Amino acid sequence: MKTPTTKLERTESRTAMAEHTIRCGRIAATLLVIGATTMLASCGSMNKDQMSTGAIPDDYRTRHPITLTEVEHTLDIPIASGDRSLTTGTRDAIAGFAGDYASKSRGNLQILLPQGSPNSVAAAHMRKEIRSVLAGNGVPAPRIVETSYQAGATGDTAPVRLSYVAVTAVTDQCGQWPEDLQNNTYANKNWHNFGCATQANLAAQIANPMDLVTPRATAPIDATRRSTVIGLYREGADTSTN
């Protein structure tokens, strides 16, 4: 038989249920705040990581910069032990090397003669002719320096080497693959060696490395031509063909 409850008991029961509901609501609200804070922190961390990754430059000009450095330029001249004079092709090669020297360097140009090789006598005989070709193509005689190097008594014919040092535009060594391309499948970024050949070719085409440092001085103006062009412009005529 169910015991009847009094009015006081019913009131106390309602009060207890209300307090329990309030406590549960407070706990739920606290858990909700903690969860939201955790999610925001995770999003903040994710955005920070994405920003850091995006800040890394993905430009081949940054990975393979063109720099100015001191480089030794050489030309090896093959001399047979029976040669008594330079061939036409060899003279042309020496003349071209002298032209490159004149445009790139103001230092000494060395003639390195082999010693101890089967062709050492012929090479020593050729040195005067080599000096003559160099001097005839713009290399000052005081800058031509003769020296020697020790060559083997057997093996390949030791060449006469022409050498000078000049500041040259270069880039780093191409053909380097420091990472597996399969690991970069979803990153959609350039691989390390990308653009290196383009930079190397561009550096090789730079005739005057100082063009990378500062622009050249402007040439004197042609006052007569300028007056003609301005006059045609005022008349509304074509200035490019007159």
UniProtKB/TrEMBL annotation:
Pfam families: Pilus_CpaD (PF09476). It comes from the Bacteria. This is CpaD family pilus assembly protein. InterPro entries: Pilus_biogenesis_CpaD-related (IPR019027), Pilus_CpaD (IPR013361).
